[in-house]
Write a structure and sequence with these properties.
By secondary structure, the chain is α/β, with parallel strands linked by helices. Helices cover 44% and strands 15% of the residues. It has one domain: Aldolase class I (TIM Barrel), CATH 3.20.20.70. It has an 8-stranded parallel beta barrel with strand order 1-2-3-6-7-8-9-10, surrounded by 6 helices. Helix 4 links the parallel strand 2 and strand 3. Helix 9 runs parallel beside helix 11 and helix 11 runs antiparallel to helix 12. The longest helix has 17 residues. The mean pLDDT is 95. The structure holds ribose-5-phosphate. Ribose-5-phosphate binds next to strand 10 and helix 10.
């Protein structure tokens, strides 16, 4: 692995503990003004000190994040359909590698739709992105998206995650499931979990804790942070689980304390 690739990976996964809190705010590429991100900058800028990387689209980066920011950027480079389209899962390349380099990204993220009607298109586009990204030492984060008809179980997520790694992903982002250790054990590259739909803070912290125990290197979490009643308190609590070995209960206590502080300030 070349110096550039190693350097960029070290901006995504902390070399000190091999863990990461990736903050995902790329939802607008198919959802538009998602709840909590109507003014993306207002929500996200206070969270940056507690995130290891920020995952978003080029437009969101340009319009909402000051270029002076030192947060490492993972750029979403797949998309092409909206929530209104019945073929939501038919994604292709939406941002070139040249643009990723111009925006000083440390990584790019691409969704593959294993098992969906258009899986072949998404997988071939993914491998094209991997070839281009590897040429410049840029790691590709594979997002194993799940179609409405697919079950998020260890069998499916192991298949999708292992495929992503074998096809060239340097990091795999997937969903937490029962027997998650099977997904991690059969995937030769680091695995992070998405948060999914907003659930109570305590449950999201429990899921994070279980994922870390099962071998995940961290989270690439969005809605369970930015749609929390206290996003700063929540990212601090998630961070405590990922980096500081907090249990879910300890982290939830931290969330409540930090939330109280926020409300008092
Ligand atoms: C979905 O494809 C997007 O890439 C999101 O970034 C991802 O789902 C993580 O966000 P959340 O934690 O809200 O699921």
């Amino acid at each position: 692995m070349g110096w550039g690739m190693r350097n960029r990976l070290s901006k995504i996964i902390c070399p000190e503990d091999g863990k990461t809190v990736m903050l995902a705010v790329d939802h607008g590429y198919f959802l538009g003004p998602t709840t909590g991100l109507e003014n993306l900058g207002k929500t996200v800028i206070p969270l940056l000190p507690y995130a290891d990387t920020l995952m978003l689209t080029r437009g969101a980066l340009r319009y909402y994040i000051p270029p002076e920011s030192d947060i490492p950027i993972v750029l979403r480079v797949s998309g092409g359909t909206s929530i209104l389209n019945k073929n939501l899962l038919h994604e292709g390349i939406i941002t070139s590698m040249e643009e990723a380099i111009r925006l000083n990204a440390v990584g790019v993220a691409f969704s593959i739709l294993v098992g969906a009607e258009f899986e072949r298109d998404t997988i071939l586009a993914f491998t094209q992105v991997v070839d281009e990204a590897e040429r410049y030492g840029i790691p590709v984060v594979a997002v194993t998206a799940v179609g409405r008809e697919m079950t998020k179980d260890a069998k499916y997520l192991s298949l999708a995650s292992r495929m992503a790694a074998e096809l060239g992903a340097r990091i795999v982002k997937t969903y937490y499931c029962e027997e998650f250790e099977k997904v991690v054990e059969t995937c030769p590259v680091p695995v992070v979990i998405a948060g999914g739909k907003k659930i109570p803070e305590k449950d999201a912290l429990e899921m994070t804790y279980n994922a870390i125990q099962a071998g995940a290197v961290g989270v690439d979490m969005g809605r369970n942070i930015f749609q929390s009643e206290s996003p700063v308190a929540m990212i601090k609590a998630v961070r405590a689980v990922v980096h500081d070995n907090f249990t879910a209960d300890e982290a939830y206590q931290l969330f409540l304390e930090e939330k109280k502080k926020e409300e008092g300030s």
